[in-house]
């Protein structure tokens, strides 16, 4: 294994203190639940290999049955894998109670025997490089086993897998709508051959601090009372106690034969969100992540080598200020050279531009090295994959800045922006609405945290950094605040603070930073805007998901040619599908399954051009 990994990778890095924390937790002789964010098929092997090297008991690993191929299936089984169906239920939509019961019993008995488990909380591999909202089915079995008394406790260990270059190739074809190529013996051999003759840089595995599942459930019962804890479409509802359960009651959610309370479902969802949130925020940023992020934000038109070095130094400092792990050291110039080589010529092209100077001297030409990334389809989707790892660092700041610009979009688009003051409560409203729009893209805060409180704190940070300015003497403002559906937050908040008048500081020193923060989420907003603009195609008709997405792509390409859409990466399939989920949750469209195909149609209320236009405008104001 050493020799095999040595041919592919420059190194595998793990912090010693993280391993020590796992060893200390394992002394209590309770199951350890390892939950990696899934990036590569190598994830299965790396976690087991690292634990083995550190004299820790390897877990049983839940692997998809698509990997039951000759030789490789046996290899994974030897590493502790047990294979499960990728889809637990038949294609006709009926629940397979027998299979669910067998899976539940197998995992439950394994836990009772003291085995540790490993499974991927996101389900499959991320196709976009950012965290995928969790699928909590297997996690619910662990919770059920604890709540039924089958085990006295379990330690949960979220894991972040950081690859400098992805071993599995890219997911561009899938993001463009082509069917996934199923794994086979031949494709696996070809992939291994390519892998052994390539350099994939460094892999870093970050094990988060183990936490007690029993203590999490106990804390959840008494602490999750925040009124603004979870996101609903444009509305935050008043929540009562997080869950109320009897630890002796057995709930088998995977059986599908017993009624599971809504509180119990919310418990599982919040636990899963908590795991994904902390794992993704533990992700170590690699050289390729940073360089790709710079090209898609600050240097979409390209940059000289010296400009890239300057920008990289700046970005490293900004990331460090925000207490994020930057996993690269040394000179920025060397880092750029390394990352450029790993990303490859399809993503970054390096040209030597001949510069001519008006001089009487001979040999007066100078070569300027110019780096230009691919910001067009299809390669921009692969570049975005690497870039998306950096998103959480600036996510909330980007939300607030984009919301502030949306409050007066016409003025913000001018070269010379007139001072426009916005009430803090209005910025909060717009920020919250944008979070609601993007709720299927990101987990903005850990469960139990008020999103409004966090957004308000982000506004304070932007004020401290002089990106937002408070008007010294506010104009007269009505005592009644706008109805923002955030009653509890406003009831206990500082009313004078909420009435503050705030403006974007468009001074020359700040303008670049504001534009940088604003463009980070632009591809996602444009994707949702395109899907909204395509909704009229569903008027009085029912359309297969694949056909509807083709209509979205066709409209997107037209708008790109017309200069109305600027970010071609907005046409990535996963984001477009998430937009459909949003509009379904808003009760704008409805979805049914027939012969394994999703069929979409408009809800009767929205089978109306004027009402659809309101939805389009609602998204477009953040564009």
Automatic annotation (TrEMBL):
Keywords: Acyltransferase, Membrane, Transferase, Transmembrane, Transmembrane helix
Keyword Secreted part of the UniProt annotation: no
CC terms in the record's Gene Ontology section: mitochondrial membrane
Localization per record: Membrane
Domain named Phospholipid/glycerol acyltransferase: residues: 32-164
Transmembrane segments: 67-84, 275-296
SUPFAM superfamilies: Glycerol-3-phosphate (1)-acyltransferase (SSF69593)
GO biological process: fatty acid metabolic process; glycerol-3-phosphate metabolic process; phospholipid biosynthetic process; triglyceride biosynthetic process
Signal peptide limits: none
Pfam families for this protein: Acyltransferase, GPAT_C
GO molecular function, one term: glycerol-3-phosphate O-acyltransferase activity
Family the entry assigns: Belongs to the GPAT/DAPAT family.
Name of the protein this chain belongs to: Glycerol-3-phosphate acyltransferase 1, mitochondrial
Organism: Stegodyphus mimosarum (African social velvet spider)
